[in-house]
Amino acid sequence: MKKGVTIAAYEILNRFFGFDDFRPRQLQIIERALSGKHSLVIMPTGGGKSLCFQVPALVLTEPNLPPNVPSEVRPLCVVLSPLVALMKDQVDALIARGIDANFVNSSLSREERLQRYQDLAIGRYRLLYVTPERFRKDDFWEAISQRNIPLVAIDEAHCICQWGHDFRPDYSRISIILKQLGNPTIMALTATATPDVQADIVEQLGLTPESIETFHDGIERPNLHLRVEEVWGEDEKLAWMENTLKSTPGSGIIYFTLIKSLYRFSELLRQKQLPHVIYHGELDRAQRRTIQERFLREPNQVVLATNAFGMGIDKADIRFVLHADLPNSLEAYYQEIGRAGRDGLPSDCLLLYDQSDLATQMEFLSWSNPDADYYARLHDFLLHDAEQVQAWGLEWLRERLHAKHKHDFRLETALGMLDRYDVIDGSVNPLVYARINPLPSALQDEQALQEKLRRDQQRLLSLVQYVRTDENRHDFLRSYFLGSS
């Protein structure tokens, strides 16, 4: 018999989401959150993670208080997410269901942001989506401190782990944020986390293994047909793409590492009269939105894309995902193939392996892992040559840091890290700043930086082992992510 919070959870599920029952494990996770206990939730893409925190959030924030009750006791559930581009979509979907939700991020104008701070402080919103970076802002803290926060959901929780494939420094401040919010119940969620990453998430949250329960739904996607084909050169890649597009009806995604490769193959496919659209991070926001909406809305759509495409793509009938280039890790690969076949029907996941792509990824690893000396030299230029840096821009700075190696892109990585660690008081694109703060210890610790590089290299090696394995590829992925054979 359903009792207490279980009845409330089912009522919310039916009233707002139109479902009569939960998927396996969802109710168990929800009941744990409603009892004030922490959870780490690992579910495949499309497995129903959002309901795990949205339902308890709505139970905890039922508007059963009279209008004159002070705002500080009006509960608010916070969703921490790194995905600025997707917050609006997620919030729009909640609002369409009659749920008072909103987001605050860098896409808002100053007037919009201040209005939402005011609404937040006076007791509006049941769910608020924000990035961890937002908690650096004093005016945001002033607004949210007026509220009672019973639950914090941490989406893409692997970002908290510096050994994870998508580490974000502001995520490493979450334990401090949680204390300042009054130590609410925590639900950390991700689709990809190896056992080492799981343990580090728990530690970075300031919790003990005994205080948090892990719900791992496995990585089973038996409807995905996993294939790897070794190729030599662009002609063979093109032949596989052409064969896939002609033989696989329905929508699909072809992933590329480099934008220039994407455009080159796009032109070759157009010459063969194979229709498609393109998507990458350098398109302006309106173009990206148009392409994404067209892909979601229309049948038989094919998109050639970098990894900028995919987060938030909730299209059930994607029939194939083809990797034209080698991804940088099994985690990235698993997330990207997870967009296929969410309707449970057979879908093809083809990875084309050209050995030259491995050299490209090795070069990317060196660019994405500057050493402590590089950070120190960059910091010194920004501190003592600010006038020249801001007058002549990134290329002037690149020449002084790299000498003859003008195609070394460590500078972009390093500036991004300085921004995330709040070293630069200004912006990095364009590079304009008024003050340079000291380097954090994390960017001066050569041993830690080298260990991160080693782990990145190990992830790439694991992907190569996946490419070359003779065993069942589903078994290989299961062993990698679950730590068992």
Structure, explained:
This protein is an alpha/beta fold. It has three domains: 4-216, Rossmann fold (3-Layer(aba) Sandwich), CATH 3.40.50; 224-354, P-loop containing nucleotide triphosphate hydrolases (Rossmann fold, 3-Layer(aba) Sandwich); 368-444, no CATH class. The chain has helices spanning 4-17, 26-34, 49-60, 84-96, 110-121, 138-144, 174-180, 195-204, 234-247, 259-271, 285-297, 330-337, 355-367, 372-384, 386-402, 410-420, 446-468, 473-482; strands at residues 38-42, 75-80, 101-104, 127-130, 148-154, 185-190, 212-216, 224-230, 251-255, 277-279, 302-305, 318-323, 347-353, 424-428, 431-436. The radius of gyration is 23 Å and the shape is globular. The two termini are 39 Å apart.
Structural key phrases:
485 residues; alpha/beta; Rossmann fold; 3 domains; seven-stranded parallel sheet; 18 helices; 16% strand
Element layout with pairings:
Layout: H1 4-17, H2 26-34, E1 38-42, H3 49-60, E2 75-80, H4 84-96, E3 101-104, H5 110-121, E4 127-130, H6 138-144, E5 148-154, H7 174-180, E6 185-190, H8 195-204, E7 212-216, E8 224-230, H9 234-247, E9 251-255, H10 259-271, E10 277-279, H11 285-297, E11 302-305, E12 318-323, H12 330-337, E13 347-353, H13 355-367, H14 372-384, H15 386-402, H16 410-420, E14 424-428, E15 431-436, H17 446-468, H18 473-482
Main β-sheet, in a few words? 7 strands, parallel
Name the overall outline: globular
Question: Roughly what is the average pLDDT, rounded to an integer?
Answer: 89
The CATH fourth-level homologous superfamily of the largest domain: P-loop containing nucleotide triphosphate hydrolases
How many helical elements?
18
CATH-defined fold name of the largest domain: Rossmann fold
Helix content: 40-55%
